[in-house]
Amino acid sequence: MKKNVIVFGDNCVDIKIRIKEDNFIFSPDSNHHMKMLRIKFGGTGINSSISLSKFGTNTYYFGSLSRDDFGKKIYKQLKKYKVNSDLINFSNKKTAVVIIILNKNGERVSFANLKNASYLDIDFNQIKKVDLNKIDAIYISGGILTEKIFNERFFEFIDKFFSDKKIFFDLNYRIGKGIKYFKEYAYKFLLKSFLIFTNEEEFKIIGKKNVNNLINDGKILIVKMGEKGVKLLKKDEEIYIEGHRVKSVDTVGAGDVFNALFIHKYLQTDDLRTSLEFANYFAAISTTKFGLYIPDINIKT
Question: Which domains does the chain have, with CATH numbers?
Answer without folding.
Answer: 4-23+33-286 (3.40.1190.20)
